[in-house]
Task: inverse folding
């Protein structure tokens, strides 16, 4: 081999190394009043806080309580304190499912929602009354989320379980849609006159009304493929409704005549929406933002038919940081810009005079 | 003296004989055919997740002109971030795999010691390391190390194979001429390994780009094309997601192409082709 060729290779390698090293070592001066964000899946946020990979985090339950219970982090603000009663998870149904075999599927959707309503009411009463059922509730939550009952107890303390889609709830959906539009995550309202028209088209409360009139059934009337998120305690009502021990040997869904088939849980709402697109599921429990975003951006035809919970998210900071101002120039983990939690952090940062910027920009 | 016309004819004949001409007209036809099939599919399927080539082209152009929502950066910034971590991962893999491969190929004891460990780690796909690398190496170095894993093993295998493929006659000849171990290594073994090393680099570069989306899913320090693809999928802006995929394809073709060119040049230089 020619010596000059070897020299050329060595020089090229050194040059590449120098460019890379310069790029790594060059760090622009930190700006004033900036909070940096980085996308870290909620399941990894506690470990990211423990290793000082990030100094703050924002997510839903049980991931918030994961960090709180063992002292990894402390709460800077609960989402309900920032946005009182803001809706979070919802039940969505694939429009084509609800409309095909119209009378039957329409009825099935209402029956699933009825089971959800009964489970939600049972959870609310159980939390209020305590006792044996409360212990049972915590145990069911622990088994589903693969946590201990202390984490579950901490988690449900800040979740508001409900199902009604009221006017304020719809207003919140409009707010989320507007925020996503302002951020450029929604570029076109795809033929809707405004966000109100869009939200009116995606929210369908008729099933909630119908659900109140359905009666239990001794026979199974049909099957619904129901998607849900991995370990998400916001969606506790589904877990309770699917529990057989609470309802005399059959699930609440079965009590109302519906056989539920669920694929493996989805990692997040955006992936669950893909499940709708693949025709893997007929109904699903997911966060309202992915339902809104993918309905409008990807035209995945679904309708929001019930609320699941309000609140239940929080901005936390690693132990030792007690105020938001101490996060100045630090990195906060978010589930990603298409989530309520990211919007919440952005709103809170702006309220406190901080700019939210992507880490490394 | 050959006239310019004769020279041109000779060149044309050479192009025809080597099959370059075939490549020159078949390649655009193949690409055009692919675009037509894609376009037809997008019309027939008519879903947001399969936009047509024109929508993707528009998104591709727009991604360079308009900052991505919430990320606040354009595609060139994403490319810069990805290239930075890609190069770092690659250089790290190169710095570890080449000396280790040379040693494992040359010294039997080194191979005996290192092989069991390497064979345990080799089948583990780079994506499996993603969550744990975030915690061990944090947000910046975590994705870099995923690339490292992707590039490291093909590079290592090729270097070891290169050392073992050295013609024994060359080694004997060098020894007969009085070369000591160091000279044998530097004058015979290492130069003979270079073409194999380049093959390893070419394969490693390809795998490295395959790892970029997984690598960048764990952290988006300064963005990155992989994160851009993931984020756009999450938003349901599929035409932008495909635009990101096109960018990765172009980057992959460019880097692998350059590497292949160097590989062929060195092979010719070494008299292997």
Result:
């Amino acid at each position: 081999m020619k010596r000059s060729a070897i020299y050329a290779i060595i020089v090229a390698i050194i040059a590449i190394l120098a460019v890379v090293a310069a790029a790594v070592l060059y760090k622009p001066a930190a700006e004033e009043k900036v909070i940096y964000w980085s996308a870290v899946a909620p399941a990894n946020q506690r470990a990211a806080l423990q290793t000082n990979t990030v100094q703050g985090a924002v997510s839903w339950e049980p991931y918030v309580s994961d960090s709180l219970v063992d002292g990894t982090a402390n709460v800077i603000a609960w989402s309900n304190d920032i946005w009182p009663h803001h809706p979070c998870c919802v039940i969505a149904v694939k429009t084509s499912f609800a409309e095909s075999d119209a009378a039957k599927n329409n009825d099935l959707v209402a029956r699933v929602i009825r089971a959800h309503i009964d489970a939600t009411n049972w959870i609310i009463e159980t939390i209020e009354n305590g006792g044996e059922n409360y212990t049972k509730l915590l145990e069911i939550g622990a088994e589903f989320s693969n946590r201990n009952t202390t984490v579950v107890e901490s988690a449900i303390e800040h979740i508001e379980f409900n199902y009604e889609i009221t006017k304020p709830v719809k207003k919140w959906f409009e707010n989320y849609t507007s925020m996503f539009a302002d951020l450029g995550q929604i570029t076109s309202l795809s033929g809707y006159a405004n966000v109100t028209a869009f939200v009116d088209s995606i929210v369908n409360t008729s099933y909630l009304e119908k659900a109140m009139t359905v009666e239990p059934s001794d026979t199974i009337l049909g099957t619904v493929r129901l998607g849900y998120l991995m370990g998400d305690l916001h969606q506790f009502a589904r877990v309770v409704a699917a529990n057989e021990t609470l309802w005399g040997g059959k699930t609440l869904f079965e009590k109302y005549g519906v056989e539920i088939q669920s694929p493996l849980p989805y990692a997040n709402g955006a992936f669950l929406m893909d499940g709708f697109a693949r025709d893997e599921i007929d109904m699903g429990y997911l966060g309202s933002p992915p339902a809104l975003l993918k309905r409008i951006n990807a035209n995945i035809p679904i309708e929001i038919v019930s609320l699941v919970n309000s609140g239940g998210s929080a901005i936390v900071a690693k132990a030792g940081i007690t105020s938001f101002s101490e996060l100045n120039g630090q990195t906060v983990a978010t589930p990603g810009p298409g989530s309520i939690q990211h919007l919440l952090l952005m709103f809170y940062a702006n309220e406190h005079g901080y700019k939210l910027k992507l880490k490394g920009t | 003296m050959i006239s310019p016309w004769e020279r041109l004819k000779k060149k044309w004949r050479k192009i025809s004989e080597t099959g370059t001409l075939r490549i020159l007209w078949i390649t655009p036809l193949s690409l055009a055919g692919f675009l037509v099939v894609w376009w037809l599919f997008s019309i027939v399927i008519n879903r947001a997740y399969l936009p047509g080539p024109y929508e993707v082209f528009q998104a591709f152009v727009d991604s360079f002109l308009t900052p991505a929502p919430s990320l606040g950066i354009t595609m060139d910034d994403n490319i810069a971030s990805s290239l930075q971590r890609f190069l770092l991962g690659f250089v790290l893999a190169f710095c570890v795999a080449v000396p280790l491969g040379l040693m494992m190929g040359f010294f039997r004891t080194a191979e005996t010691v290192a092989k069991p460990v390497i064979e345990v780690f080799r089948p583990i796909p780079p994506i499996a390391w993603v969550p744990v690398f975030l915690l061990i190496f944090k947000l910046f170095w975590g994705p870099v190390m995923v690339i490292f894993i992707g590039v490291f093993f093909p590079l290592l295998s090729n270097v070891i194979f290169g050392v073992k493929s050295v013609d024994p006659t060359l080694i004997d000849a060098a020894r007969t001429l009085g070369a000591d171990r160091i000279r044998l290594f530097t004058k015979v073994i290492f130069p003979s390994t270079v073409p194999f090393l380049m093959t390893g680099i070419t394969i490693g570069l390809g795998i490295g780009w395959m790892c970029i989306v997984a690598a960048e899913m764990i952290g988006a320090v300064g963005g990155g094309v992989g994160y851009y693809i993931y984020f756009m999928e999450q938003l349901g802006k599929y035409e932008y997601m495909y635009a990101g995929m096109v960018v990765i394809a172009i980057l992959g073709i460019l880097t692998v192409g350059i590497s292949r060119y160097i590989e062929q040049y060195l092979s010719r230089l070494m008299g292997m082709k």
In short: The first strand of chain A starts at residue 34 and ends at 39. Chain A touches chain B through 47 residues (CB under 8 Å). The mean pLDDT of chain A is 91.
